[in-house]
Amino acid sequence: MSKGEVRSIVVTGYGTNCETEMAHGCRLGGAETVDIVHMSELLNGKRRLDDYHFLNLPGGFLDGDDLGSAKAAANRIRYASVAGNGERFYDQILRFIQAGKLILGVCNGFQLMVKLGLLPNLEGKKEPEQEATLTSNDSGRFEDRWVYLKVNPNSRCVFTKGIKGVYLPVRHGEGKFIPRDERVQKELKEKELIYPSVYG
């Protein structure tokens, strides 16, 4: 790998979709290498996250969302061992984060990060616990439309830096973000990890 080369991985499989579009977005963003990799290749040790700088988790319907949005996939990642070395795949993800590398989760990918405890991980634990969940929309139906979103100008998010707002599609049946308790909700607001108008 040459100095300055950005290697991106887009994980697919078990019901994800839009991995081709996500890979294209990585190329538009300047990544020199973009690999679409099936989750089974990571679990059998043929590919390793250590070889990449930018992990992308696309949307879809992981495992059919049978246990709720991305919960089955979160359990697989948390407990599955990588063939050949006995290391959990989750350990690779935690090492990826500790190395300061970037992860982008879109739709089901975001839900997966929440169910794994990677978000919000307010205390920065090396082995984070789930502090929030996503549940059925208040509307009681699958939402599929374009929306305008404000961006918190004080957010530390590298993906929204310098952006005032975005117009993008939402497509989800379980998009309602629920913090575990009042402490988590308060800390999300205090650390400006959510827009101030959210949750009062």
In short:
With 200 residues, this protein is an alpha/beta fold. The protein contains six helices and eight strands, in the order βαβαβααβαββββα. The protein has two domains: 121 residues, Rossmann fold (3-Layer(aba) Sandwich), CATH 3.40.50.880; 70 residues, no CATH class.
Describe the structure.
The chain is of the alpha/beta class. The relative contact order is 0.13. The radius of gyration is 17 Å and the shape is globular. The strands form 3 sheets. It has a 4-stranded parallel beta sheet. Strands 5-8 form a two-stranded antiparallel ribbon. A two-stranded antiparallel ribbon has the order 6-7. It has helices spanning 19-28, 39-43, 71-79, 89-98, 108-116, 182-190; strands at residues 7-12, 33-38, 54-57, 102-105, 132-135, 143-150, 165-172, 176-179. It contains 6 helices and 8 strands; from the N terminus they run E-H-E-H-E-H-H-E-H-E-E-E-E-H. The protein folds into 2 domains: 1-121, Class I glutamine amidotransferase (GATase) domain (Rossmann fold, 3-Layer(aba) Sandwich), CATH 3.40.50.880; 131-200, no CATH class.
